[in-house]
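Team,

Forwarding the record for the chain on the shared tracking sheet. I've put the sequence and predicted structure together so nobody has to dig through attachments.
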Amino acid sequence: MSEISIDNQSLYFKLSSRYYSDESESLELTFKCLVSPNYTANFNNKNLKLAYNPNSKIMFVGHYAAALALKGKEKGASLGMLFIATQFVDILFFPFVLAGIEKLSFVKGFTAVNDFNMDYYPFTHGLLASLMWSGLFFMLYYFVFSKNKTNKKSIAIVMALAILSHWFTDLIVHTPDLPLVNGEPKFGFGLWNNKVLTFVAEAVLLILGLWYYLKKTKAISKVGKYAALVFVLFLLLINYLNLFVLPANDDIKSLTISALVFYFLFAGIVEYVGRKRV
């Protein structure tokens, strides 16, 4: 690329002629990208313009602090699976909403962070349900996935704690919508009512989780020395864009797809990162 310019809602790239020699060639397509899954790309006369379509927002990243800390505690656990476990109830929640099992409505300005009015989700975000999902993960890892490992109990415990950590992390930011079982009483400290405090809280959690993980593990390659730090900085950048740049997404189908894509994408990346430290 020989030229890049950025304006309010688009990115502009001028490609060198050694890649495209046909002056008349044109191509128009829509694709998903990392920062936001909705961009339109237009290619014409060696120029590529990516225009942003404002209807996307990705998900809360503070949960990953628990995954990093738990990996530091039990090195035999998969860091990628810990990332999945910390977001497991949200991985269930969005498909449950689509299926009509749980309820999510969008209320403009419901909080400063998002428009989510989550008034019924006992099967994923009730404390009792979280304990049950944690118990399920413990049994799966103790009796199936780690059954031949000498540290299977420790691995099963940290995987269960990763599931359970989601409820307590949500407690910090949610409005009072987290039930113990179903219905009242509901709990939540409401940090989502302040964007800056939300960002700071998530950043502090991630940095503490990273600090503990780096303290308890050691790099086995040059990549291992810096990859975890770079990845956490990347998560903080994504979260900044999520909170202060990207508009809210009030379409449950596209929100579900983008959320699931990012949950598994982040897990795949961090699994690679985790294998560079022991």
